[in-house]
Amino acid sequence: MASNLPLLLLGFCYVGLAESQLKLFDLRASNLPSNLLGTTDGYVKVFCGATTLGTTSIRPDNANPWWKEEFSYFKAQENEVLRLEVYDSDVIFDDLLGVCQRQLKMGTHEHDCYLDKGGTLHYTYTIG
Ligand SMILES: [Ca+2]
């Protein structure tokens, strides 16, 4: 009897968490601002809840960059917050251009997010 307990608990945990797979892709930005140091060298940091999913590559000197990177997360949950931080890479310190936050909803969703310092971030995610 006692030997069956761990398996039983595992089963309960699995059902209780209701985890889903998140896929984030098609990250593009347009009209990123330029500063004294030149055109923006953009990159994006991706978070889901408290978990860091990764960082895109830097697209140097490009006000309208796109990123081929895709981000997957197997432990996503509906209503968790997807957070995208857009930066301009610089020599001394990187400028935060804007933050996009959104609660995950089941299905496939495409969004445009207006960045505080100018420009727009476009992204698509699927969860289910
Ligand atoms: Ca720069």
From TrEMBL:
Protein name in the entry: C2 domain-containing protein
Pfam family for this entry, one: C2
InterPro entries linked to this entry: C2_dom, C2_domain_sf, Perforin-1_pore-forming
Entry GO MF terms: wide pore channel activity
GO cellular component terms attached to this protein's record: membrane
Domain C2, chain residue ranges per copy: 2-123
The entry's keywords: Signal
The keyword Signal belongs to this UniProt entry's keyword annotation: yes
Organism: Amphilophus citrinellus (Midas cichlid)
Domain of life from the UniProt record: Eukaryota
GO biological process: defense response to virus; immunological synapse formation; T cell mediated cytotoxicity
Record bears the keyword Metal-binding: no
Stretch forming the signal peptide: 1-20
